[in-house]
Amino acid sequence: MRGKTLDQIDRSLIDGLVTKHVHASDRTKDLYVALIRAMFRRAMREWEWIDHVPAFKTYNKGGQVRVRWITEEQAEKLLRELPDHQREVVVFALSTGLRQGNVLDLTWDRVQLARRMTRIEHGDTKNGNALGVPLNDLAMAVLQRQKGKHETHVFTYRGEPLRSANTRAWRKALARCGITNFRWHDLRHTWASWLRQNDVPTWVLQELGGWKSETMVRRYAHLSVKHLQPYADQLIFAPKIRPPERRRKLRKAMTQNHPHRRPKRA
Hints:
- Helices cover 46% and strands 5% of the residues.
- It has 266 residues and is mainly α.
- The model has no long low-confidence stretch (mean pLDDT 88).
């Protein structure tokens, strides 16, 4: 791609390069494309070098979507191991489901404490649409503790805006807790899984998380079946089977009344 400008790079060019040079699984090919896609998104949203991101090809279409989440007990253990500034960021992520970039880039002008909400502006979400985020008591408590620490940014470290959350301290805290195969983005999966386990409908979860496609939310659907219970209860079947204790008493009585007769099984 040497000598080409970003607007000259399209889906077919990347597909040709990946197919020719990446001799690996479809999953690995998708990782290469994901990196390219991330660079293009930054070029569009932050640097404003291009107007749109090409629809790059996805290779692993039939694979299962990764969903990794932790329990509340594991989360509490992890929070105890984190430094104060990182603990606040993780609590806010667990209470809102926001992605790492949206949490770290959160500024006070986007927070409306009186209305208990914050805004993620157009172009700052994964799907490009603006998102209104309701703030529960847990998230509000975090913001109250952060007030006055910085003029513009919500989350800081040593007086400066926090630039990264996936740090050595984060990884060491995970190791001390014995939590494996867990990425920072999995805090979002944990948030969604907890809500679904508390019977939040998938369509509500989709709006809360800002997912454009219902397919992305269906990965959490199996975590709650409360809405299906009334239908499962429609199966009415009462087999007439004698309890084991009753069968034993019946055999014993027959043996006593007819000692030379073998009782039939009930």
